[in-house]
Amino acid sequence: MDMSTAFVPSVVHVGKQCSSFVCDQCQATTISNASSTNPSTLCKKATRTSVLKMEATNPVQASHAQPAPTFEDPHGLVKIKRALISVSDKFGLVELCKVLHENKVEILSTGGSAKAIASAGIPVKEVSDYTGFPEMMDGRLKTLNPKIHGGLLAVRSNAAHVNQMKEAGIEPIDLVVVNLYPFEQTVSKGADFATCVENIDIGGPTMLRSAAKNHNFVAVVTNPKHYQDLVAEMTEFNGCTTLQMRKKWAAAVFAKCAKYDAAISNWFSQQLGNEFPKTLALTGTLKQTLRYGENPHQKAAFYSDERSKRVGVATAEIVQGKELSYNNICDTDAAFELVSEFSEPAVAIIKHANPCGVAIGSSASDAYIRALACDPVSAFGGIVAFNRTVDKDAADAMIEVFTEVVIAPDITAEALAVLSTKKNLRVLMT
Question: What is the pLDDT of residue 195?
Answer without folding.
Answer: 94
